[in-house]
Hints:
- The structure is a homodimer.
- Chain A has helices at residues 10-16, 20-29, 36-42, 48-60, 82-85, 88-100, and strands spanning 34-35, 64-69, 75-80.
- By secondary structure, chain A is of the alpha+beta class.
- A three-stranded antiparallel β-sheet of chain A has the order 1-3-2.
- Chain A binds chain B through residues 1, 3-15, 18, 20-21, 23-24, 27, 43-45, 83, 86-87, 89-105, 107, 109, and chain B through 1, 3-15, 18, 20-21, 23-24, 27, 43-45, 62, 83, 86-87, 89-102, 104-105, 107, 109.
- Chain A binds a DNA duplex through residues 1-3, 18-22, 35-37, 45-54, 68, 71-76.
- Chains A, B: It holds the Pfam family HxlR.
Amino acid sequence: MTTPLPTCGVARFLVLLDGPWATLIVRELLRGPHRFTELRATLPGISPHTLTSRLRQFETHGIVTRTAHAEIPPRVVYELTPLGRELRPVLDAMAAWAAAVPAAGTPAD
Amino acid sequence: MTTPLPTCGVARFLVLLDGPWATLIVRELLRGPHRFTELRATLPGISPHTLTSRLRQFETHGIVTRTAHAEIPPRVVYELTPLGRELRPVLDAMAAWAAAVPAAGTPAD
DNA sequence: CAGCATCCTAAATGATACTG
DNA sequence: CAGTATCATTTAGGATGCTG
């Protein structure tokens, strides 16, 4: 965005976790290291384009490590860095809020 | 988005707080009720278009109330609902994470 | 398997001008 | 004051096809 993003430290979180998929990917990685196709499988509907794009940004911002194993077939493992793992309380707070929403559908998640 | 958004309850938070301004507006409203121009003043760079759009969506989702006083000049006050106020822990968690980021700029915010 | 290249859509946002 | 209307920009995301 062209926005100056002046307001506060929260902005740092917002630019990184921009877009709905970003948060969901982090949420999956909080469960442990994942390969590319594993992430695709656990995130129904995501396109490889989007997944790659988000993972690259996470790498750049230092919340995810990418480990490529030079094998046949190739194997690439994505894992949260310590900084990335510190995002768990934020995700938990989001989930807690969503669960507390009264009329919005099935809170059974 | 055309996304199915199937994953989890967190998605409810994500669709509502979509875009960088959305979270920042809620953050300001957590400090208390605000008038339209007050919000504009506390959110440098936001356009009235964007502010109106976000506030309308917050109204629709039941996290903000809009109170219009039929006076001259008109006065409209936006205030978080109880559900909206429950977003505070989430915003706090975001801010806490951002403050914990080591190399990202001035953590003095 | 793990992408990348290319084209396209939708939505959030911005700029500017105007109104009840 | 509190918006609305219109136009343009930016970007997340999707679809498809191809490669190392």
